[in-house]
Amino acid sequence: MSIRRLLLVALLLPCALAAADDRDTVEQFNDTLIRAMKSGGNFADRAAIIGPQVEVAFDVDTIARVSLGRTWRELDDHGRTQFAELLESLIVATYADRFDRFNDQRFETTGVEAPKADRSVVKTRLVRVDADAVTLDYYLTNGRIYNIVADGVSDLSLRRADYTAIIGRKGFDGLLADIRSKIAAYRDDGMDEAAQ
Amino acid sequence: MKWLRVGLLATSLAGLGACASDPVPEMQAYDPWEGFNRASYRAMDVADRVALQPLARGYASVFPAPVETGIANFFQNLRTPLSALCGFLQGKFDRGGKDLGRFLLNSTVGLAGLIDVAGRAGIEFQDEDLGQVFATWGYRRSRVLYLPIVGPTTVRDLPGDVLNRFLSPRWLLGDAYGWPVATLDSLSLRSSALTATDARDAAALDPYAFTREGNHQRRLDKLYDGDPPVEDFLDEALDESDDDAQ
Hints:
The complex is a heterodimer. By secondary structure, chain A is of the alpha+beta class. Helix content of chain A is 65%, strand content 17%. Chain A is built from six helices and five strands, in the order αααααβββββα. Chain B has eleven helices and two strands. Chain B has helices at residues 2-18, 34-62, 65-89, 93-108, 117-120, 130-136, 158-173, 179-192, 194-203, 207-223, 234-245; strands at 144-147, 151-154. Chain B has a two-stranded antiparallel ribbon with strand order 1-2. In chain B, β1 (144-147) and β2 form a beta hairpin. Chain A binds chain B through residues 62, 65-66, 69, 72-73, 94, 97-98, 119, 130-131, 137, 139, 141, 146-147, 149, 151-154, 156-158, 160-166, 169, 175, 178-179, 182, 185-186, and chain B through 29, 65, 195, 199, 202-206, 208-210, 212-214, 217-218, 220-222, 226, 228, 230-234, 237, 240-241, 244.
């Protein structure tokens, strides 16, 4: 093998390994969602399954920073930590609410792209028996998920638009209160579901 | 013919609007009429919760899933020729051809569109519209509009929405597209959107802002034929972090 080829391999190998790791991260997270649905448990059970995986797979600090935009810069460390913790709880509650029952859904990984050195996009599909498939593109930075684009709609952009509107009308404390209410609503729905 | 004239007038107005394209980045929703739009959204939301949503849920529970799918297929088939035309007007001959092929196949073998034979053969509905035509012709950015009955749209997309939603099926069905059939069409459309609006209601803190952003991104997705550039804001956030550290 020529020196030039060796150099090329040395340059490309880390990228290929990182892409494989990112694919594993996403597939493990998708497997967790299937496991939560198959568990047949209630909202709290599903949240207990999904929570640890969100902690491992998601870059919640980056999601928090991007979602808040300028407001993030105005927060002290306490405010940032408080918001990131609340956001993580919201992400877990949202997944536990949406992925509530197993009906032969399955995830397929369709490809991995690396637009920049520290970023990758893992392309997947959620195949459902009773509805059209949904494309889910996971965006990762340094091996952790910071955005999910479902059928062309970016979760991060929705959060940013949603939170910016609330901060504009109610301020940062109003946003915290609304997120707490939303988590409580998911939990209450879960209790209603368990009671039925 | 009255409907045709209204459609053409609306189309011409959008064309004039194209001359005054709004100076904002394409990736962001431009909403200078937010006050009006929010008021319109609130009014429509009340009407939707009180009347349309319960009717759509009733419709979904009364008809078995295959019947519901057949009805949705039938009305989508009526909208396919317009989609084909809009594909051709953008120079997307493959997409226009697919829609034309779908229409011919589903209208005949698919029993007047009730069965999506073309979809099973891998010929998907391309969902082109007049708004995408105007965008291809250079009208890339437009003001957000939220109108009663029409829902979330933009100045550029409004004529296409009206043509697609109300006029396209009427052209093919003629007088048969009276109130009962139009009501069935509306209920079918609303019923198919229930999953999306339920997810929005569960997730959104500000449903208007959420709907506006979601619609804006869906339009970008269509303008880029399912492969839009995704603004992830990450570089901007990282730059700000560097500034903080200095």
